[in-house]
Design a protein that fits this description.
488 residues, alpha+beta, Uridine Diphospho-n-acetylenolpyruvylglucosamine Reductase, domain 2, Vanillyl-alcohol Oxidase, Chain A, domain 3, five-stranded antiparallel beta sheet, globular
Length: 488
């Protein structure tokens, strides 16, 4: 190619090369998770199209530079940043709906809430997640759970074509008709291992009905009953209803306990949603201390989950954009994919560890914030339509599920290593304490850098085929990071 430095690269692409010391570098290098704010890439390359991506791949390959694609920048382990070249895909955010209105081609820089908005005129959507700033490419490559998963499956189940720049520096299109193995691997085989995704085509699903969001907060005394009842309720709940349970710490005060939050999104009107959850609420044993409801168009319900009261440009990450209002916290999380309900002993262990955190002045500080100094256990359904696909039909192997448990710490004092250590130790301690109740599998979109035997935990019986696909499309292992799929 003949390019030998960043100036050459900048002259060869239509996008921008943002180098250390240059304008905008300090904002461009940031990702969602503040744990990785000290990362200083060689450059952030904001590509404008797939041809730019081809040029960057060839440049990095020829010079032996580490290469990292970034869509939304939400990797839990920081794998969307590093010390090499960052291929920033944010400008590839086009949304083109087919003539029949049943398929859409999304640029790899598309994010969830912006995509929901763009598809809303047709009252159709891609089944995606709830967090508004998550990138579509990474979400899809790792599966993709969200409020529509019980009804329509994980995000990758709707993927019908993918455009990827492979290690060869050329664009490869994969569908059922050509390069079907690459499409298969992209559907749940994890982000960043096989190349840089530049576009994805999805079958759309209808969202032309009224949607309802219900929120119930319960006192801590109801926690064990809520978790146990929710696990049983999932077995018979209609797929139109998605419900998560969150155990959360709160601001320190005399006698303060954590609390229990039940969040429900139902594809239907309020009366129907309330009837569906009536049995669940009835076995809680206590009345909620707070309840809220909102019915309306799908796009409004999705917006209000994270961005109620915010304008579209404010519903972005603080620090990444001038108007962003969504706080960036330091986050450390681990996960388990549960095939069945946890026993009461396992639930009580979760509660005990939440109580320990609530009473700890380092983990629950006087300047507590629910956005960025909280401990959480999040239980989200991964059943119904998710399990309707065979385990080997896509790379997403988790097809015998009830729910995914996420064990999460957030903190904001980045100047104190002791605070970071305490949060990681609490999360690891909780994770180890419930070892006998965990399945041993993990959700690859909650990628965990400390996970033992991560290849089996994420990919199970699909690992061997993923390694074969990796070898075919990236034989020199250009796309290599700590938990990338290794060549065969």
């Amino acid at each position: 190619m003949g390019l030998t430095d960043l100036d050459d690269l900048a002259g060869a692409i239509d996008g921008d090369v943002i180098a250390p010391g240059g304008p905008g570098y300090d904002a461009a290098r940031l990702v969602w998770n503040r744990r990785f704010d000290d990362s200083r890439p060689t450059a952030v390359v904001r590509v404008s199209d797939a041809e730019d991506v081809c040029t960057v791949v060839e440049f990095a390959r020829d010079l032996g530079l580490p290469l990292t694609p970034r869509g939304g920048g939400h990797s839990f382990a920081g794998y969307s940043t590093g010390d090499g070249l960052i291929v920033e895909l944010g400008a590839l955010d086009s949304v083109a709906v087919g003539a029949a209105g049943e398929r859409a081609r999304l640029g790899a820089g598309s994010t969830t809430l912006a995509t929901y908005r763009a598809l809303w005129p047709g009252r159709m959507t891609v089944p995606m997640g709830m967090c508004p700033t998550v990138g579509i490419a990474g979400l899809t490559a790792g599966g993709g759970l969200g409020a529509l998963s019980r009804l329509h499956g994980v995000t990758c189940d709707s993927l019908v074509e993918v455009e990827t720049v492979t290690a060869s520096g050329r664009v490869v299109r994969a569908s059922a008709r050509e390069n079907a193995d690459l499409l298969w691997a992209t559907r749940g085989g994890g982000g960043g291992s096989f190349g840089i995704i530049t576009a994805l085509t999805f079958d759309l699903v209808p969202v032309d009905m009224t949607f309802t969001e219900l929120t119930y907060e319960f006192p801590w005394a109801a926690a064990e009953g809520i978790v146990a009842a929710w696990q049983d309720w999932l077995r018979t709940a209609p797929p139109q209803t998605w419900a998560i349970v969150e155990l959360e710490t709160q601001a320190p005060a005399a006698g303060a306990d954590p609390y229990v939050l039940l969040e429900i999104v139902h594809a239907g009107p309020l009366a129907e949603a309330e009837a569906v959850v009536a049995d669940l609420l009835g076995v809680a044993g206590q009345s909620p201390v707070r309840a809220g409801s909102h019915s309306g168009p799908f796009v409004d319900v999705e917006h209000d989950v994270f961005c109620k009261g915010l304008r579209a440009k404010e519903c972005t990450l603080a620090g990444r954009s001038a108007d962003g209002r969504i706080p960036r916290a330091a986050v450390y999380a681990r996960s388990d994919v549960a095939a069945g309900p946890w026993p009461s002993e396992g639930i009580r262990t979760l509660l005990e560890w939440m109580e320990v955190r609530q009473r700890d002045p380092v983990l629950t500080p006087p300047d507590f914030s629910p956005a960025d100094s909280v401990g959480k256990v999040i239980l989200e359904p991964a059943d119904a339509a998710v399990n309707s696909v065979a385990a080997d039909a896509t790379a997403f192997v988790h097809r015998d599920n009830l729910f995914v448990a996420q064990f999460q710490s957030r903190w904001r004092d980045l100047g104190s290593g002791a605070v970071a250590d305490a949060n990681e130790e609490w999360t690891d301690g909780l994770y180890d304490a419930v070892a006998e109740y965990r399945s041993g599998t993990a959700y690859q979109n909650y990628i965990d850098p400390h996970l033992d035997d991560w290849q089996q935990a994420y990919y199970g019986s699909n690992l061997a085929e993923l390694r074969r696909v990796k070898t075919k499309y990236d034989p020199g292992n250009l796309f290599d990071f700590d938990q990338s799929v290794p060549p065969a």
